[in-house]
Amino acid sequence: MKQQMKSISLGWTGASGAPYGLTLLKCLLEADYRVFLMISSAARVVLATEQGLKLSANPAQATSQILTYLGCERGELVVLGKDQWFSPPASGSAAPKQMVVCPCSTGSLAAIASGMSNNLLERAADVILKERGQLILVPREMPFNSIHLEHMLKLTNMGTVIMPASPGFYHDPKSIQDLVNFVVARILDHLGVDHVLSQRWGYDSGIEAETDN
Ligand SMILES: Cc1cc2nc3c(=O)[nH]c(=O)nc-3n(C[C@H](O)[C@H](O)[C@H](O)COP(=O)(O)O)c2cc1C
């Protein structure tokens, strides 16, 4: 492991939106991050359903499957199992200071809001919260019930950034990937990672509203 690399924890859980998680991972690796990736069982089902990507239960094999799928040779990907309690994200003494759960199921949202820490992904999020790091959750559900909303409010009040997978349409998207890029670009903005995924409002967007003046 190269010590000087920037590192980040990334969780994929069982909400719809596997392309968001894959695109975000690709961008982080291309920005030369070491990414500690935690994938829930339900996320594996969603990946297979939405992308036809059937990941091995073996973390090393899953790592090479994902890198091949993304065609990515930069950064460093470390896929972790749900019980790898001795890995860096499990302890405040070694964990990265930033974590994104993308996509984030309402189940994992609940577990994180309640501090369950029943698997490595939940524990990693709990570590970020206790260490006052940066936690970004990307939930996808509709409609939300009051349980979901209460969890999001509770976490927001603790400094977590809730970024629902809600792509805009004002940038004239031509493809699904354009919509995915819109969401991932906003996540990268919050992380402080440079990207060229989408145009910026008011600068180079070419978007001009008609006004009375
Ligand atoms: C194909 C598929 C799509 C799903 N979509 C969503 C979703 O959009 N949002 C959500 O909160 N749960 C969704 N679920 C349900 C979650 O996967 C389920 O609640 C699971 O227990 C979440 O576990 P996890 O948080 O450990 O991944 C979906 C499940 C499947 C199989």
In short:
The protein has 213 residues and is of the alpha/beta class. The chain contains seven helices and six strands, in the order βαβααββααβαβα. Helix 1 (18-30) packs across helix 7 and helix 4 (106-113) crosses helix 6 (146-157).
SSE blueprint:
Blueprint: E1 6-12, H1 18-30, E2 33-39, H2 41-51, H3 59-70, E3 76-80, E4 98-104, H4 106-113, H5 120-130, E5 134-139, H6 146-157, E6 161-162, H7 176-191
Parallel strand pairs: 1-2, 1-4, 2-3, 4-5, 5-6
Helix pairs in contact: 1-7, 4-6
Bound molecules: flavin mononucleotide (FMN).
Flavin mononucleotide (FMN) binds near residues 14, 15, 106, 107 and 108.
| Terminal CA distance | 58 Å
Question: Percentage of helical residues?
Answer: 25-40%
Stated plainly, the CATH topology is called Rossmann fold
Mean pLDDT: 94
